[in-house]
Amino acid sequence: MDEDLYAEKLAWFKRNESPEAVLLVADDPESMKIIVAWTTVDVRMVEQPSPPTGESHREIWDWLWANARYSLAELAEISGLTVPFVERKLKPLISSRLLYPDRTANSFVQRYLRERVLRLFDAKPRRPAKSS
Question: What is the mean pLDDT of the chain?
Answer without folding.
Answer: 90
